[in-house]
Amino acid sequence: MAQMNMKEAIRDAMRVELKNDPNVYIFGEDVGKVGGVFRATEGLQGEFGEDRVFDTPLAESAIAGMAVGMGLQGFRPVAEIQFVGFIYEAMDQMFIQAARMRYRSGGRYNSPIVFRTPFGGGVKAAELHTDSLEGLAIQTPGIKVIVPSNPYDAKGLLVAAIRDNDPVFFMEHLNLYHAFRQDVPEEAYTVEIGKANVVREGSDVTIIAYGLMVHTAVKAAEELEKSGVKAEVIDLRTLLPLDIETIVASIKKTNRAIVVQEAQKTSGAAAEIIAQINENAILHLEAPVLRVAGPDTVYPFAQVEDAWLPSPARIIKAVNQVLNF
């Protein structure tokens, strides 16, 4: 075991898979000698050489397009999109070419690609650097969407993603890269894709979250406990496929739920989660499922982003609404 923050755990996942599988390649803007804008790939080019870890031109469509071509040839590319707001230039290759490859070829070909990208607010960055665009990805059949909340899960999920034969959109919250350290095995291990984790047991209400919002939800649950409310917190870990079974099992205990996402409210992951709850557990609900999310505006300037982002206070307010319904 070693103490790692999430950035170090992500780097270690790439290191062990570069070592274990000669078909793994890492590329993107400045990922080589510089080690990426957040140094997530720092040292990997020195250890594995310029043929395995290399820089690309500043062209997201070329990065993703090369990943599709390499995947067709049996390689396992890990392509970094420097910030999530830059995926618009690569969406054709990611969400049409890679995601549909198995279907289009009748199962003859697949796209074992990981598209890594930082996202998320609270770090006072410029627009396009802090957006949460997972809603675009989860509407795409054929691609898996992973959003880890801690170092242990980040390494295990990234190793699993690199070994997966389908394309994976792997989203890394900027505010979690250096947030805390955790014991992480130094050898390779996997965390199951598509399996949520109950991070806090409770009996009165279920709080469903992912990424940084898991920690915001836990803070809210700790405050709620002071007033006698026991909130269960679920870390989704994977948005597509969604572990609806774990969600339903929790709602059968608590009979109330809220969903927390950093992204804008409309048409996001929370809306899909609530729809699936209604389809699978509506008779177990004592109140409507509420969303706590960012407002339906463009991500704001840094001076006001703290007021825009979901907070423990907003989560507590939503919990009280469903408890008092």
Number of strands: 14
Note poorly predicted spans.
Answer: none
Mean pLDDT over all positions? 96
Structural class: alpha/beta
Largest sheet: 7 strands, mixed
Compute the CA-based radius of gyration: 19 Å
Shape: globular
Sheet with the most strands: spatial strand order:
3-2-4-5-7-6-12
Number of helices: 11
Termini separation comes to 46 Å
Order of helices and strands: EHEHEHEHEHEHEEEEHEEHEHEHH
Characterize the structure shown.
By secondary structure, the chain is an alpha/beta fold. It contains 11 helices and 14 strands. α3 packs parallel to α4 (91-104), α7 packs across α11 (312-323) and α8 packs across α9. The protein starts with a strand and ends with a helix. The mean pLDDT is 96.
Task: Explain briefly what this protein structure is.
Helices cover 37% and strands 20% of the residues. It is α/β, with parallel strands linked by helices and 325 residues long.
List the main descriptive attributes of the protein structure presented here.
325 residues; alpha/beta; 7-stranded mixed beta sheet; 11 helices; 20% strand; globular
Helix-strand blueprint:
Layout lengths: L1 E3 L1 H15 L3 E5 L15 H5 L4 E3 L4 H13 L3 E5 L10 H14 L9 E6 L14 H5 L5 E3 L4 H13 L4 E6 L8 E3 L12 E4 L4 E5 L2 H15 L4 E5 L2 E3 L3 H11 L2 E8 L4 H13 L8 E5 L10 H4 L3 H12 L2
Parallel strand pairs: 2-3, 2-4, 4-5, 5-7, 6-7, 10-11, 10-13, 13-14
Antiparallel strand pairs: 1-8, 6-12, 9-11
